[in-house]
Amino acid sequence: MPNRLDFYTLRLFAGPFALALATLLLAQLLERLLRLFDLAASAGAPLSTVLLMAANLVPHYLGLAVPMAFTAAIFMAVARLGDDNELDVMLATGRSIARIAVPFFGVAILLSLLSLYLFASLQPLSRYGYHLAMDAALHTGWDAKIEDRRFIDTGKGLVFTAKTVDADGRGLEDIFVEHIDAGREQITTAPRGRLVPSDDGTRLLLTLEDGLIVREESAQRLSTLSFQRALIDEDFTPAAPPFRTRGDSVRERTLAELRQDMRSSGARGEAAAEFHGRLARALVLPLLPLFALPLGMASKRGRRAPGVVFASLALLALNHAMQFGESLAESGRADALPAVWTPPLVFAGLGLWLFRSSLAWPGDNPVTRALAAIEAGFEGIIGGLRPRRRRRPA
Question: pTM of the prediction?
Answer without folding.
Answer: 0.73
